[in-house]
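To illustrate the input format used throughout this study, we show a single complete record. The first block contains the structure-token representation of the backbone; no residue identities are included at this stage. The design step must infer an amino acid for every position from geometry alone.
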């Protein structure tokens, strides 16, 4: 492993494919925050402390992951100050997404249009659920003829619901997303999140997932125990 100090609060670690094989770990483990990945991260931080004088933050740190094709990956650790989250662009976007969806659900489209800096209305998102029961409970609240496109995936012991506006109105899509956040949490809103989910997750229902779970929940997932 090679370490690089970016600044006082940030350190970058380069891990080769050979080292990943030695750890018996891959990119997916880091993304899923598996126990094996947690152990490797602790070892990396200890080594960074010895080699470049890295001091782990008192509160918490952000860890970003970047793959290098045919070479390995790069882990970047930066301090996450709870009073000043300088790296919280994703969280800011997610909060903004929730706010806009709430406005859409309440039918306040005019208010959005009149803002000084209008925000493009999000039309897709991925939601994480701890159990299939939570997804089924959400599906039971959906109206018949729902035109929001939905797909259901599983990675590990967690379930992921991909929602896309499709031909539904923003108001209807916003209502579905807000209800999804009551039973689960936002996993991602970017194309790369969806690509990773399709590549590494198991697709349980490829289309009309909410409608199928609502109409015949048990039969829809029986083939994927």
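Output of the design step:
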């Amino acid at each position: 492993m090679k370490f690089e100090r970016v600044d006082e609060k940030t350190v970058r670690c380069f891990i080769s494919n050979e080292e990943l094989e030695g750890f018996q770990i891959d990119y997916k483990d880091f993304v899923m925050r598996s126990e094996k990945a947690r152990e490797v991260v602790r070892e990396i931080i200890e080594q960074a402390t010895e080699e470049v004088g890295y001091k782990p933050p008192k509160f918490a740190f952000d860890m970003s992951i970047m793959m290098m094709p045919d070479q390995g990956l790069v882990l970047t650790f930066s301090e996450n100050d709870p009073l000043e989250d300088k790296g919280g662009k994703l969280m800011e976007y997610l909060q903004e997404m929730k706010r806009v969806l709430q406005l859409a659900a309440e039918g306040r489209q005019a208010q959005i249009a009149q803002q000084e800096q209008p925000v493009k209305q999000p039309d897709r998102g991925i939601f994480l659920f701890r159990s299939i029961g939570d997804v089924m409970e959400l599906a039971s609240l959906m109206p018949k003829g729902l035109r929001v496109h939905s797909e259901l995936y599983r990675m590990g012991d967690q379930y992921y619901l991909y929602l896309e506006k499709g031909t539904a109105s923003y108001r209807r899509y916003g209502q579905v997303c807000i209800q999804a956040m009551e039973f689960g949490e936002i996993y991602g809103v970017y194309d790369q999140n969806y690509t990773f989910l399709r590549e590494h997750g198991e697709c349980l229902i490829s289309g009309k997932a909410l409608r199928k779970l609502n109409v015949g929940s048990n039969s829809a997932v029986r083939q994927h125990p």
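Structural context for interpreting the output: The two ends are 40 Å apart (CA to CA). The CA atoms of residues 61 and 188 lie 19 Å apart.
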